Amino acid sequence: MNLFANLTEVFNPEVVSRIATYIDEPTEKTDKAVNGLVYTIVGGLMKRTTSEIGVNQLYNHVQKGRYDGTLIDSLSNTLRDPAQTNTLITHGNDVISHLLPAMKSSIGTMISSYAGIRNSSAISLLGLVTTIVLHVLGKQVKDRKLDADGLAALLFSERDALVNVVPEEFLPRLVDKVGLQQVIAGVAAPARRTTVETPSRPVATATRPAVTYDYTDDSDNDNGALTKWGFGALVVVALAAGGYYIYQNTQKYSNGRDSVSDVTTVVGDTVQADTVARSLAVPKETAPKSASAATVPAPTTIASGLTQTLTPYLTNPALPKGRVFPLPGIAFVPGSLSLTPGSQAAIGELATLLKTYPQLQVQLVGYANDAQSGFGFTNRSLSSKRVYLIKQQLVSYGINYLRVDAIGRGTGVSLRDTSRIRRPALRKIDLKVIAK
């Protein structure tokens, strides 16, 4: 299934025109907003299904809401009626509040800014597009007889398509707003529901009779009487011994108070001296540990070029932001997401720079020309996954993810470029300074 091609067919020019009339926005801006919301909703649902609760919630909404695709066949006619359109919007906004909690307002703001429409129009579109997307997914559930796990797997089968269809100018804000870093990088996967087997009732009741309690009353026989008297005698002897021990220690304390005082002083000095010695030893022991706790690899000679290049630029306020620098030392095994030896040290050096300059904000720009068709990657998706993988590494070193933007540009050669200048396909990663 090509979900995005299917949705493009559903949101045909006639449907978009009717939607634009309803929200009173220009058709071209409405079309841009609808496309942005399609990417946002599908990406958000992918992220939601990375948890078992999210998988169950999505499937339950599809089933209980009767999202079976019947709306698709009559969508154009339904949108002629403002009352029915408003009902679709209301239902969609209610669903999005459950599936993507606390995100409705931020998504509306993002789409409003991206497409240049009113925020109220973006919120209305969010509800409407959500309802239509769920009907498209519900039709697949019905036709293929999918369970909840099948629906989650269906969504994630569109992950590479999502990377390829989202416009370059929209992808970074979509990833950061919805939190799709791990989804885009290929790290996240749909959760699998687990079934817990509970023991049947007969098994539980069968084990109860196995435990028996036998109570024997021996208070009337001779053995019981002897046992009681013997126990009483032992208690009396123990009390007498304890009293004698207390008396003896009291006498020793009163006779040797001075000597005890001297011993206490010595012991106190010894404890104090040991405490001081250990406190002085702390820096020597913890200094190496604090360096390793940051988990940032020490820069190597290969990676040191980044620090030497960036430091003069970052420390000079007269130089404007926006400069682009190549990232030396970071490379991937051809056609894969595996870093080459030494790349980790270069990523660690970049993390150190970001910690050294807290105001520094950067954008990682990736290019790839080595995608292999047999592995399901395009150059665009491969370049995106690589830079998001580097971003995740920086976040694991303690860098705020908002300080690191990431975007993949494929080969860097646009298919729309009609110039006669032949441009080479690129394979590299650049660093653009957004703020310093």
Structure write-up:
With 436 residues, the protein is mainly α. The protein has two domains: 3-184, no CATH class; 304-435, 60s Ribosomal Protein L30, Chain: A (2-Layer Sandwich). Helix content is 61%, strand content 5%. It has 19 helices and four strands. The protein has helices at residues 3-10, 13-23, 27-48, 52-64, 70-73, 75-78, 82-99, 104-115, 119-144, 148-156, 159-165, 171-178, 181-184, 201-207, 222-255, 257-293, 304-314, 343-356, 379-396; strands at 324-326, 361-367, 404-408, 428-435. The chain has a four-stranded mixed sheet with strand order 1-4-2-3. α19 links the parallel β2 and β3. The two termini are 45 Å apart. Mean pLDDT is 78; it is low at 196-200, 202-228, 250-294 and 298-303.
Task: Outline the secondary-structure elements.
Blueprint: H1 3-10, H2 13-23, H3 27-48, H4 52-64, H5 70-73, H6 75-78, H7 82-99, H8 104-115, H9 119-144, H10 148-156, H11 159-165, H12 171-178, H13 181-184, H14 201-207, H15 222-255, H16 257-293, H17 304-314, E1 324-326, H18 343-356, E2 361-367, H19 379-396, E3 404-408, E4 428-435
Parallel strand pairs: 2-3
Antiparallel strand pairs: 1-4, 2-4
Helix pairs in contact: 2-3, 3-8, 3-9, 4-10, 7-9, 8-9
